[in-house]
Design a protein that fits this description.
mainly alpha; two-stranded antiparallel ribbon; DUF2236 domain-containing protein; MPAB/Lcp_cat_dom; oxidoreductase activity
Length: about 260
């Protein structure tokens, strides 16, 4: 579901094609993006991104995330894999393709404000929400969490991709990342589109019956990583005692199981 039917072929092309890469094998971005904790980090990122009304308007009006959620996930995961692990030429082509799509995404949000997906300000919000989520998930559930230098280097690594996509001044350290998140907070708000997206992602994704219990754990783990200020607009519960015990244990078990399955594959 995540890799899609072309997953094995894409994986072989990305990892086995010779040539220079944007990131050397020892870079933190490879450690983070290659870890099973990305599953919970990715869902948390989508929830956080939805809080910006203009970013959410672009998704709601131009993305078939309900009709083809797995296709959208496959395209996103392939982009991350190509830019992180793939040959430099392929990474640049992937970025160019996304930028071309962004140029065609524009409209007017429900509050009357115009938006463009290529707006560097919106691009930065999408970027920092992703990076903050991936980093937090890795620190909490990753196989080998990063030290402070590693976290700073990870943020700097992701800035390489963000700048290529059109972000003008991406953060370069964890401290800068946290400050940028705080700077964007006044722009966050509760919208029907954001609440609808949260409901779809957490409660009604198109999944077979057997996949629903583990996905429920994945959803609970992702929500538990959101700050309280991000949950209220999405009408999500905040239960600290439960989240620091049962949910965290369940999350570790789930991510560990995914990691084991991926390693065997």
């Amino acid at each position: 579901m995540v890799a899609g039917p072309d997953g094995p072929a894409n994986r072989a092309r990305i990892h086995d094609t010779p040539g220079p890469r944007w990131f050397d094998e020892d870079r933190p971005i490879r450690r983070v993006h290659g870890d099973a904790s990305m599953f919970v980090g990715g869902l948390r990122a989508l929830l956080l991104q939805s809080l910006h009304p203009l970013a959410m308007a672009g998704v709601a009006e131009h993305s078939d995330y309900k009709g083809d959620p797995w296709g959208r996930l496959q395209r996103t995961s392939t982009f991350l894999a190509v830019t992180t692990f793939g040959p430099a030429d392929d990474a640049q082509r992937a970025v160019d393709k996304v930028r071309g799509i962004h140029r065609r995404v524009r409209g007017t949000a429900a509050d009357g404000r115009p938006y463009e997906a290529s707006d560097p300000h919106l691009l930065e919000w999408v970027h920092i929400a992703e990076v903050d989520s991936f980093l937090l998930a890795h620190q909490r559930y990753g196989a080998h969490p990063l030290d402070q230098q590693g976290r700073d280097d990870y943020v700097a690594d992701t800035a390489r991709v963000a700048a290529a996509l059109g972000v003008l001044d991406p953060p370069l350290t964890e401290r800068q990342l946290k400050q940028r998140i705080a700077d964007y907070r006044p722009e966050m708000s509760s919208t029907p589109a954001a609440r609808e997206a949260a409901k779809f992602l957490l409660l009604t994704p198109p999944l077979p019956l057997l996949a629903r219990p583990p996905y429920a754990v994945l959803a609970a783990t992702s929500v538990a990583m959101l700050p309280a200020w991000a949950r209220l607009p999405l009408r999500l519960p905040y239960l600290p005692p439960l989240e620091t015990t049962a949910v965290r244990v369940a999350g570790r078990t789930l991510v560990g199981g995914i990691r084991w399955a991926l390693d065997r594959g």
